[in-house]
């Protein structure tokens, strides 16, 4: 990776919880099922065995990805942000477009982005355009729908 994987403490905890659940609970149960199915004889037509092996590969792939993301993670607590007058990692911004439509966005790690709930990844085009902005700043961003201009109305950080 050429850039740090910024993530909030809550986001890191969610990655770790998923890893732990897969590794300590789901994977051992699946290995047990595969063992049982393998003992039933012909594996070529054994649905439990075939599905189990496929699912085990999926789990192992996900575990590898989660481990890689956690190793690259740089946990940043937004509540500890010293410069609260500008939009940095973890900031919650209220922005308005040219039509005066307001949106509330929180700049989070790429692994915890969820556009439907207003959580946009730190490396998304809109987040990159808003980085370092202060209240009253105008920022232009190229989106799939075309170029838009946004004004920063408010910036808040979690209490710490």
Question: How do you describe this structure in short?
Answer:
The chain is of the alpha/beta class and 160 residues long.
What does this structure look like?
The protein is of the alpha/beta class and 160 residues long. The protein has two domains: 5-75, Transcription elongation factor, GreA/GreB, N-terminal domain (Helix Hairpins, Orthogonal Bundle), CATH 1.10.287.180; 78-156, Roll (Chitinase A, domain 3), CATH 3.10.50. Helix content is 39%, strand content 24%. The protein is built from three helices and seven strands. A five-stranded mixed sheet has the order 5-4-3-7-6. Strands 1-2 form a two-stranded parallel ribbon. A hairpin with a 2-residue loop joins strand 6 and strand 7 (146-156). The radius of gyration is 22 Å and the shape is elongated. The relative contact order is 0.15. The mean pLDDT is 91. One of its GO terms (molecular function) is DNA binding. This is Transcription elongation factor GreB. It holds the Pfam family GreA_GreB_N. InterPro entries: GreA/GreB_C_sf, Tscrpt_elong_fac_GreA/B, Tscrpt_elong_fac_GreA/B_C, Tscrpt_elong_fac_GreA/B_fam, Tscrpt_elong_fac_GreA/B_N, Tscrpt_elong_fac_GreA/B_N_sf, Tscrpt_elong_fac_GreB. Residues 5-75 form the Transcription elongation factor GreA/GreB N-terminal domain.
